[in-house]
Amino acid sequence: MLKTLLREVKEFKKDSFLTPVYMIFEVIFETIIPFLMGKIIDIINSDSPDMSRILLLGGGMILLALGGLFTGIMGGKHGARASAGFARNLRKSMYENIQTFSFANIDKFSTSGLVTRLTTDVTNVQNAYQMVLRMCTRAPSSLIIAMSFSFGINAKLASVYLIAVLILSVILAIIIRFATKYFTQAFPKYDKLNESVQENVSAIRVVKGFVREKFETSKFMKASQGIYDIFIKAEKVITYNMPVMMTTIYSCMLLLSWLGAKMIVGDAGTAGGFTTGELTSMINYCMNILMSLMMLSFVFVMITMSAASGKRIAEVLEEKATITNPENPVMEIKDGSIEFKDVMFRYNENSETPVLSDINISIKSGETIGIIGGTGSSKTSLVNLISRLYDVNSGEIIVGGRNVKEYDLEVLRNNVAVVLQKNVLFSGSILDNLRWGNKDATEEECIRACKLACADEFIEKFPDKYNTHIEQGGTNVSGGQRQRLCIARALLKKPQVLILDDSTSAVDTATDARIRESFAKEIPDTTKLIIAQRISSVQHADRIIVMENGKIDGIGSHEELLKTNAIYKDVYESQTNGGGDFDEGGAR
């Protein structure tokens, strides 16, 4: 995990190196100051104070203070740049890796979990990294240097520090152990919080339509309360840190003052005896040593807190896309012919029952194929395999005479356009959304695609026409309008294969018929796969595939299936009896 994360330091290695260097120099400067201050006190207390020496030592203290100020500022500057840059690289690398994920990879992570990893978890790691660069350098070096100076002044008196450090280390270790247990439980709860927010905001119209605001608020408060309770438990443990620390510091000061005073009185008049200035320096070093220990304890708490976040980030960075380009990919698709050969597919490799099995189909280029079946019959799973949104577990899929695994992914997906039932539009103008299909498309090409998808009829009624602003998710247009815009967007790809996954379900039957008629006239060479629930949407297809429990139950024309396939006949009769009369061809 650590190796994976540190690879993202990249161009901020120099800042990461300079930060601890500056922190060490800051500690050296700060540690020398109490030593010089003690010397000045001893000179003042002497029988004949040397003013020139006092001024020299005082000037040295000022220079050391300025040096400490400069190195502290530089350490903070480089530390902030290194940690912020590290966080930026982590987010960038995670986001880029997520873009390479196949649907199988994405299924391993929840949307809210990925959002938490990109936000809260990265912030935790960023804070921990900055503390490691600064405090993990400053605290140990301050502890070691101050201890060295103390033992240099008086080894006997400095032994008080060793006892204090030992006692404080044991107490802080206990505090850290209990605090980190709670902190590690807190961050996974952010996933539930983000999930609650995401669901509520994205489905706000449904929430208001069913008057469920109070329920959603209570669900959010429950998730928020969970985080609150965990942090309260952790913070209650952490609160013991400061009183224990201050008790130890003041106890050390009292002990140093008492023992030091006795030594000063006992050494009075003795050359080279213990002095008041040395006692003052020892008291200052007491603060340095014990405060350094407290800083280390906070660093360990922060590192432990961020360890869970770092592990979650590493999971995303280390996740390898299950679908990748071959070494020498084919860059051109000859035509829109499709063939399934003994295809078997399951979403989970450990699943006993496959989603699709024994799939054998041969589709000619330019053919129109209807696909119909009940909910859960794996219609969408079947077409997702064509553009390699998933890979088959066994068998092979041939497009344009070549196995889909031989093609460059971008080439394959540009030539196999999919219009999903759940249509997604992005914030921007209608033209911006259409150009997702082809970023270089002219306005004339966009208009032609919209005419094919019967979208021009409502676009022309907007005051700004094709420059009309679309809200995020397409919330300011109707479901049928979104579907037609998405069909037009797919057509701009000029694909060899066009897949309509129940993408006219929100369109009235008359418009649906006009869309199919325009496809037949304008793009006759494009292979069209139409998944639908309505018989009227597929009855004029060259052939219709009937799916049932992940298998092909029948293939044939509308008339053939009415005679030979019980499932198709039942669907036809239920729609005929329940939804009005059909003519002899099956149309309303």
Describe the structure.
By secondary structure, the chain is an alpha/beta fold. The protein has 2 domains: 2-318, ABC transporter transmembrane region fold (Up-down Bundle), CATH 1.20.1560; 338-579, P-loop containing nucleotide triphosphate hydrolases (Rossmann fold, 3-Layer(aba) Sandwich), CATH 3.40.50.300. Helices cover 62% and strands 10% of the residues. The strands form 3 sheets. Strands 6-9-10-3-11-12 form a 6-stranded mixed beta sheet. A 4-stranded antiparallel beta sheet has the order 2-1-4-5, with no helix packed on it. Strand 4 (394-399) and strand 5 (402-403) form a beta hairpin. The radius of gyration is 36 Å and the shape is elongated. The two termini are 62 Å apart.
Tell me about the largest β-sheet. 6 strands, mixed
The CATH class of the largest domain is Mainly Alpha
Shape: elongated
CATH architecture of the largest domain: Up-down Bundle
Low-pLDDT segments: 579-588
Count of discrete alpha- or pi-helical segments spanning 4 or more residues: 21
Mean pLDDT: 83
- Percentage of residues assigned to helices: 55-70%
Quick description:
62% of the residues lie in helices and 10% in strands.
Supply the key terms.
single chain; 588 residues; alpha/beta; ABC transporter transmembrane region fold; 2 domains; six-stranded mixed sheet; four-stranded antiparallel sheet; 21 helices; 12 strands; 10% strand; disordered C terminus
